[in-house]
Write a structure and sequence with these properties.
Length: 224
C-alpha cells in the first residue's frame, strides 16, 4: 500500500469518526462520497465503515437500500473471517437483514432468515421475536379473506344499529327485540371471528418458533 493511499485511507477513517454517532444522514453522505476509497481499504477498516454505513441506512428507514448492500457485506465478513469484539458480526448482520425484510413486508424471507439465526443461537430473543411476528403476519395474509368478511359483518352491524336507533325505535317499537337479536348476532359473530383469527395467527406463528427452538436446543445438546 503506497504512502499516498495510506494517507487517503487515514483521512477518510478520521473524517468518519468526526461525524456524530446518530447523524446517520451525514454518515451515509460521507461513505457514498468516499465509496471508492472505502472499498479499497484493508478488510478491518473497510468492513467496519461499510457496516456503520449499513446501520445508518437501516436507522433512517432505507430498508431496501440496506438490503441491497447487506449480502455483499455478509459475504465480505465470511470471506475475511472478520470478528468485531465479542459480537459475531455475521449473526448481527443476519438479524438486521431479518428485521429489514420484515419492515418491507417480506415476511416469508424474514421468517427464513430468522429461523436460520435461531438454529445458530436458540436462545436469541431477537430471532425468536422476528420469527414469531413473521409467522403471525403470514397467517394474517392467508386469512385476510375471512377477516374481510368479518369486517363487513361488523360494519353492517354498526350501520344496522344506527338504523335501529333512528327508525325502529321511533316508528316500529314492537320490532326492537327482533332487531336487537340481529344486531347482537351480527356484531358478536364479527368480533368473535376477528378475535379467533388473531389468536390463531399468533399461536401458529409461535408454534413454528417453538418447534425450531426445540430442535436447535436438542442438536446443541447432542453436539456438547
Amino acid at each position: 500500500m503506497s504512502a499516498i493511499n495510506s494517507t487517503y485511507y487515514a483521512d477518510v477513517v478520521l473524517g468518519f469518526k468526526q461525524i456524530p454517532e446518530k447523524n446517520y444522514s451525514r454518515q451515509i453522505y460521507f461513505i457514498e462520497k468516499n465509496r471508492e476509497i472505502v472499498e479499497n481499504m484493508e478488510s478491518d477498516f473497510r468492513i467496519d465503515l461499510l457496516d456503520k454505513y449499513n446501520i445508518a441506512l437501516y436507522e433512517i428507514g432505507h430498508f431496501k437500500k440496506c438490503l441491497d448492500h447487506l449480502d455483499l457485506l455478509i459475504f465480505d465478513v465470511i470471506n475475511e473471517n472478520f470478528q468485531q469484539g465479542s459480537d459475531d458480526l455475521f449473526c448481527v448482520l443476519l438479524k438486521r437483514k431479518a428485521f429489514a425484510l420484515f419492515n418491507i413486508g417480506e415476511f416469508e424471507k424474514a421468517q427464513h432468515v430468522s429461523s436460520e439465526l435461531l438454529k445458530i443461537d436458540p436462545t436469541s430473543l431477537e430471532s425468536n421475536l422476528i420469527l414469531t411476528n413473521a409467522g403471525y403476519k403470514l397467517i394474517k395474509q392467508k386469512t385476510k379473506g375471512i377477516r374481510a368478511v368479518a369486517v363487513m359483518m361488523l360494519i353492517f352491524g354498526i350501520c344496522f344499529t344506527c338504523f335501529d336507533l333512528l327508525v325502529i325505535h321511533s316508528f316500529y317499537p314492537e320490532q326492537i327485540v327482533k332487531v336487537g337479536n340481529i344486531q347482537l348476532f351480527t356484531i358478536g359473530s364479527a368480533i368473535s371471528i376477528i378475535l379467533c383469527l388473531e389468536v390463531f395467527a399468533f399461536f401458529k406463528g409461535r408454534q413454528k418458533t417453538i418447534q425450531i427452538q426445540k430442535e436447535s436446543l436438542h442438536k446443541k445438546r447432542l453436539r456438547s
